[in-house]
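Sequence of Transferase family hexapeptide repeat protein (Melghirimyces profundicolus).
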Amino acid sequence: MSRSIHSSARIGEGVKLGHFTVIEEGAVLGDNVTVGNHVTVHSDTVIGEGSVIADHAVVGRWPKPAKTSTVKVDADLPALVIGKGCTIGSHTVLYRGSRIGDEVLVADHAFIRENCTVKERVVIGRGVAVENQVEIGSQTKIQTNAYITAYSRLEDDVFIAPGVTTTNDNFMGRTEERFRHVKGPTVKKGARVGGAAVLLPGVVVAEESFIAAGAVVNRDTEPATVYAGVPARPLRPVPEGELRET
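Predicted 3D structure, token representation.
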């Protein structure tokens, strides 16, 4: 048998299924969905019409943290929902409990953990890691190998360059005190973060801030200001010609 489709799965019109694909109980595939070879669609996952799931992707899997992990799995975690017209790359892993908006691209080898919200027309590049409880606004772009830590928030039209690292724990896993302070960065509308920059726990990158490559942001920034250095310091205003049209 080249594929396995549970009898309770609902498959729309014009759906194309690759070889050795598994569609589990209660999954819903909208019209004109394309599913590649060796794909697993876990139970109850919803895939919007016209979306493409590439070879070897795993969508809707339950999280299974280590025994020592601080993450607790909700037994009532809702199904993964993938919007219309999305492209989910090869070898991606998308967890149950997240919602992916319309026309989102998740590139090869990326993963998105549980309880994340990704709004419409977002680009998540190759090898990007999005941890649990992350919010990503519409038309945001996250490029290759960036790391978006748990409890981060990226607003609309944010740009995250390759290799950016975000952090959420100043105690790095030591002491019970850390649980009161765990918080990822907030990156406000239109802000841009350059390659290999590091955002420390809880910082707020203000609207239209520009963070230079390699900078370490350890405090909140001012709007429409260029920051560079370790630690990051304000250099000059962002030129008016580079600001978003409002």
